[in-house]
Design goal:
This protein has about 250 residues and is an alpha/beta fold. Helix content is about 30%, strand content about 30%. The chain has nine helices and twelve strands. Strand 9, helix 7 and strand 10 form a beta-alpha-beta unit. The radius of gyration is 18 Å and the shape is globular.
């Protein structure tokens, strides 16, 4: 059963179609991956689902839990149960970790905040009163963002490049959290360039030039990584001007 669907989504930015009549369906309780070369529109897809202001001028429909959410703001979509983990988590000078995790529930108990920190591998005694600022590494901010997501308990979670800027130990912790969220029946979308991240999914979409060109079990999409998006005859062949040397690593 689909939890979230995009139907015939077309989005133009700077006079260029970034999403091209794209249709995609995410089944409830599964871990999905969205892969493709740089410039394919993967992050744009994530931002459109989340409802960022610059990505709202699309045609088509976004359906969440059988409801059209085209007109809903970011906050309204979040309250419906959709959340996005950014490729580069934000810094908030002056905001304490405890307040960052409890942003959606100011009455959240200290015990729950500390539990979320422990789940993502951060010592509550060291992080509870720290600021979410430049003193935190990229891996620490990724973990804090995941702690906030765990506290929110959303139904639909998008993680944009979850392995970006983190070490192997932190990545293993993130993989554990993905498994935990899946065990709770959450629907997760991994936007990724990474084979290791792809392998955490049980279903994958291959995206190219703003459209979905293939989908299936993860193992069916793996050859794409091996071939590095070699030239093909598909109608959605990437623009040859694109620098595909920045493709999957």
């Amino acid at each position: 059963m689909a939890l979230l669907e995009l139907k015939n989504i077309t989005l133009k930015l700077d006079n260029r179609n970034i999403l091209n009549n794209l249709s995609i369906s995410f089944e409830k309780g599964r871990v999905h991956a969205v892969v493709g070369p740089n410039g394919a529109g993967k992050s744009t897809l994530a931002y459109t689902i989340m409802g960022l202001n610059a990505y709202r001028g699309f045609s088509g429909d976004i359906i969440f839990k059988n409801e059209n959410i085209n007109s809903l703001s970011i906050d309204e979509r979040a309250r419906k149960g959709i959340t996005l983990g950014w490729q580069e988590p934000a810094r908030f000078e002056g905001l304490r970790v405890r307040d960052f995790i409890a942003v959606a529930d100011r009455k959240m108990k200290t015990e729950k905040i500390k539990e979320m920190l422990q789940k993502v591998g951060l010592d509550p005694n060291s992080y509870f009163t720290r600021s979410v600022d430049k003193t935190l590494s990229g891996g620490e901010r990724k973990k804090l963002e995941l702690a906030g997501i765990l506290a929110l308990e959303p139904d639909f979670i998008i993680l944009d490049e979850p392995d970006s800027g983190i070490d192997i130990e932190s990545l293993d912790r993130i993989f554990e959290i993905i498994k935990f969220l899946r065990s709770k029946g959450k629907t997760i979308v991994l936007v990724t360039h990474s084979m290791a991240v792809l392998q955490q999914a049980d279903h994958a979409f291959l995206m190219c030039n703003g459209a979905i060109i293939d989908e299936g079990e993860t193992k069916a999409i793996i050859p794409y990584f091996e071939n590095k998006c070699i030239p093909c005859a598909h109608k959605n062949l990437p623009d040859p001007a694109e620098n595909r040397e920045e493709g999957l690593q």
